[in-house]
Predict the structure.
Amino acid sequence: MDFLEPDAFFDLASFEHRDLFADCKYVWDAMGKIAGYLERRLGANMDGVKCFKRPLPETVVLWRGKTLRGGFEIIGGDVTKGRFRVRIEGEETTEAAVLWEGSVLWDDSIFIGPGAVVEPGALVKGPTIIGPNTEVRQGAYVRGNCIVGAGCIVGHTTEMKTSVMLDGAKAGHFAYIGDSVIGREANLGAGTKLANLKIRDQNIRVMAHGTRILTNLRKFGAIFGDHVETGCNSVTNPGTVLGKSCQVFPLTSVRAGYYEPNSVIRG
């Protein structure tokens, strides 16, 4: 079923972590590979932070392999557009990652990319990769086994676990992303919830073109192809698979199953 392979949902050519999707018969097979991929590829850069499981007592800057606690000036700018500037040793750069005072890193199995920002009150658990120019906003909860691409937003009080966000994906406000893959430039409206667990104790099946496919996953939220958009306070049921450029109306409960690209889903 070519229409359920990763390439049918995502433009992977420039995605740094495209190897995660190699040899996946179905797009959701990638979720079972996240932990192993992170074990091989993490490359954590937390050695110099030395403050875990409690709020950072001061703002920390990661730059050129160094962990800086002083000698910098934060100028600011749009993170996801690569315009967040820090002045270090008289030089302005957009390549420095900023961990604001009051943010929490749970352990050292975390990579924070250049130009990324973790705001006060955000909590990040490993293993996790936060890509370059990505913004982890105040109150966000990244629970581990997460891969976040470049130019993404993990928004205010957004929770994420065992999931992937491709480059430019945004979940700006009050979202839940569990056991899911969010495509390039997809946007989750405020309050979007990707439910990942059925009430009944059973593996999740996906209905696609009249065929019910067993995923062998007990927890499976949603697959959002590139450029999918959801309205505020929408909810997807476990095993929802949206093709590229689908649109979900606000307040909609999306039934599980496969939806063709460009589908418009109303309540």
Remarks:
- The helical segments are 34-41.
- Residues 183 and 226 are 4 Å apart (CA to CA).
